[in-house]
TrEMBL record:
InterPro entries: DUF112_TM. Residues 20-437 form the DUF112 domain. The chain crosses the membrane at residues 109-132, 147-163, 170-191, 203-224, 315-334, 354-377, 389-407, 413-442, 463-487. This is Tripartite tricarboxylate transporter TctA. It holds the Pfam family TctA. Coiled coil: none annotated. Signal peptide: none annotated. Keywords: Membrane, Transmembrane, Transmembrane helix. It comes from Gemmobacter aquaticus.
Amino acid sequence: MDTFGLLLHGLSVAMDPMILFYALVGVTLGTAVGVLPGIGPALTVALLLPVTYGLDPAGSIIMFAGIYYGGMYGGSTTSILLNTPGESASIVTAIEGNQMARKGRGGPALATAAIGSFVAGLIATLLLAFLAPQVVKLALTLGPREYFALMVLAFVTVSATFGDSTLRGLTSLFIGLALACVGIDGLTGAARLTFGVPQLMDGIEVTTMAVALFALGEAFAVAGQHAPEDGMHKVKGRVWMTKEDWKRSWKPWLRGTFIGFPIGSMPAGGADVASFLSYATERKCARRPEEFGQGAIEGVAGPEAANNAAAAGTLVPLLTLGLPTTATAAIMLAGFQQFGLQPGPLLFVMNAELVWGLIASLLIANIMLVVLNLPLIGLWIRLLSIPKPWLYGGIMLFATLGTIGVNPSPVELGMLIMFGIMGYGMRLFGYPVAPVVVGLILGPMAEQQLRRALSIAQGDWMTLVSTPVSAILLLISALFLIVPMIMRLRGGGEVLRQVAGDSD
């Protein structure tokens, strides 16, 4: 069956009333958490992991993807009206969007952000549908050496590419890899690092780790902050665009889409990088460069299209190779594994209906998001009036009850609290959280592929670089490790720090 046929079959799956309901819940929650500063898609998906344990796998995963898309949409609202990005990918939007709001043009800024997100999401989802099968065909030819090299690339890019310090990122990664060793060794059957605790025989639950680091850790971190809040700029006039606004926006929408999608698909990509590159491109291409910094609509249209296209691009390595390139993708990978599903080439063979239903539902989710965002802006703004103590107190209660509901064990509760405190400490001292989760999820798979490759080669370590693909992937990993160090030494650390958010 060709891609068109598979996509049409996916649309028939996505039109199921329950699937539509899950998609609607996902995009609504995603928009809400995108609007609320400090609460990103990763935190929300982590919170919902224990709640969705007993639900339909297809519906739950579609809901997670809807949250990811919705978070990209919603983040622009507070960036424009409050100058406070709801999530890290909307940092760039605040530069021009808030200036437009200050001049009474908040309505057109919100409109171009919403329509640009729709256009980009639609095109990028179609690109995902046509590109994913080609990547799957390539992935089916890879052996243990190549898969191990791919996972090394994922480890390096997630932990060492962005942030203040490569050492801190790698330290977080090694914490995750160490925790991944807890439990029964799949090869020998020996217990590792269990310390005589029976509950640790099955290893550390990814769900518990994710909820603790992202939800409890974030709640503790926010509780320790006393940051003053900026004033809000009300939307004046109609929430729509003039003919001139349309003329100035459509090209940035397209440019942002075709910048964001490939960047999101790359291991070192992500929505943050895509939005920065899009903004830089629009400044160079603008007919009125003097307006940038003063409220240029191109500076809103391009980055918003880019970060939504990047969200779709992120799903390419996740679905086809099982490699998460962002924090949210890592939590979504945990969601797949929770239902006994392993993203990768075989997912398209064994669970084709789920995959194509997911891709098709993203097309429908984009339409839902346009309907939700423009007419209901007033409702989303009211969410900002929720007191932070209530909000984060509710998050902590929800996280604890959800985790205990899935695994009612004092040991599990103890690990939840312990890892929550660890997440707070990591944020306090500038250690990224996402590499811990990535290490915990991919660590066992990387170990398995490494052992398999060495077993085939009878212990010869040179086998890891004996094929062109594995050698090139390991070389790219080395470059991703070295180049950021050089950039920091040459003064590029501030830029890297800005795109180091874990909330996407």
